[in-house]
Design goal:
alpha+beta, OB fold (Dihydrolipoamide Acetyltransferase, E2P), BirA Bifunctional Protein, domain 2, 2 domains, 8-stranded mixed sheet, 5-stranded mixed barrel, elongated
Length: 430
């Protein structure tokens, strides 16, 4: 016999196999017990017959509770009526542990209770589906850039300075000096792009923003490509190809998980390039026509992004925001110096911004002036200024938050379900 994972059932039909897992549920019918067992790769129905396993093992089977751990040996057979299309006729049952009463039962639980038991909530079929899709999105991100000649060059988590000021950063003591938990790997990616041409970094980022909206986490993961010699139009092209690739990968490999989440695949099938592109000024016009009080010079909040994104059936790229709204490093439009060569990609169905980026200042003098205008410490950015002294070229990039992308693709109401252990304003446990 062979030890088998449940998702390998098709290769073992008719064979005697061993499955190791946990009990999801049990249904009794006379001298038969029907066990739904999960092993992390899938679910399978196992049939325990008193006539086959004997009195002792049948009695042991009757003691099993939700999440009890067990090892089952039996004959695997195809059955279209069974979960997953296969069923195990049990010959032997070994119980590793009869679990205590499981806190999460098949009934309605409050969000606070579920978050307090997040370490156990992860075992539910819904959370399993979400995190399987997250895994697929991450794999698709890496494949997209790897297949296009990008080099993965990770950025540090401890940084001596901030990308956009220190008001929303977590500060920590780094021996005898102050350090911050990174809010973006972008500045370091600019350095590696000057060495490798096309790069991306992928890792955790942190924002000490005291926000409780459904789109915010204190700790999240971000993938950030950076390309030497690229300009804003190049990034808009790259971003739409990137998102279309990710959505196609999920539709191909995780359609069953989308259906379990009751996510309509038809809405995702519309996510193909090219995406609509509108300027910031055109976005203001749309908002005003919709009765929104936005006026030129205003930054967009979640409500504004929701209105804009609902105007389109696929992501929309909003570009050339007022320079005053953007970070110190953002290049300005040579024809309109009051505008930044930047973009935000807004996901449809009201999910808002999932990608932000643009073209970086490549002039040493201009960047130095912007650092001083923003009252940032020049000495902390000296290495960043060096990039403009030794072979500076136009360059551009963007960042995509994994959790917001997962929330959109899965159709979730809140990003707290998109990461195994979310860190929110009032949530640091478990």
């Amino acid at each position: 016999m062979s030890v088998m994972y449940i998702d390998e059932a098709a290769a073992h039909a008719g064979q005697e196999v061993t499955i190791r897992g946990w009990l999801r549920s049990r249904r009794d019918k006379g001298k038969l017990h029907f066990l739904i067992v999960r092993d992390g790769t899938g679910d399978i129905q196992a049939v325990v017959s008193k006539a086959t396993v004997g009195d002792a093992q049948f009695a042991r089977s009757a003691e099993l509770t939700q999440e009890s751990s067990l090892v089952l040996t039996g004959t695997l057979r195809q059955d279209a009526r069974a979960p997953g299309g296969y069923e195990l006729d049990v010959l032997r049952l070994d119980v590793l542990q009869v679990a205590e009463s499981f806190p999460i039962q098949p009934k309605e639980h409050g969000t606070g209770f579920l978050m307090e038991h997040r370490h156990l909530w992860l075992r539910s079929s819904r959370q399993h589906a979400v995190l399987r899709i997250r895994h697929e999105i991450i794999r698709a991100c890496r494949n997209f850039f790897d297949d296009r000649g990008f080099t993965l060059v990770d950025a540090p988590i401890f940084t001596p300075n901030a990308c956009e000021g220190t008001t929303t950063l977590f500060q920590t003591q780094y021996f005898d000096e102050t350090a911050y938990l990174t809010q973006s790997g972008q500045l370091y990616s600019e350095a590696t792009a000057a060495a490798f041409g096309k790069v991306y970094c992928f890792g955790p980022t942190f924002r000490a923003e005291k926000s409780k909206t459904r789109r915010h986490l204190m700790e999240f993961w971000m993938v950030e490509p950076e390309v030497a010699f690229a300009q804003l139009p190049d990034m808009m092209d790259l971003a739409e190809q990137f998102l279309a690739h990710i959505v196609a990968a999920v539709l191909k490999s995780r359609r069953a998980e989308l259906l379990l989440l009751e996510r309509d695949p038809a809405k995702l099938e519309r996510v193909t390039a090219p995406f609509p592109r509108i300027t910031y000024e055109e976005a203001i016009d749309i908002l005003q026509r919709k009765g929104n009080p936005a006026k030129p010079g205003d930054d967009f909040g979640a409500d504004d992004e929701t209105i804009l994104s609902k105007e389109f059936d696929r992501p929309v790229i909003v570009h050339r925001y007022p320079a005053a709204l953007k970070a110190f490093y953002m290049e300005t439009d040579p024809e309109r110096p009051d505008l930044a060569l930047c973009m935000d990609v807004l996901a449809p169905e009201g999910y808002g911004e999932i990608i932000g980026g643009g073209q970086r200042i490549h002039s040493h003098e201009k960047l130095l002036g912007r650092i001083r205008e923003h009252h940032l410490p020049v000495e902390a950015f000296q290495w960043y200024l060096d990039l403009r002294r030794f072979g500076s070229v136009p360059h551009a990039g963007f960042g995509m938050g994994i959790e917001r992308a997962v929330a959109w693709i899965c159709g979730l109401d809140h990003v707290r379900e998109t990461i195994p252990f979310p860190r929110m304003l009032y949530r640091l446990y478990p």
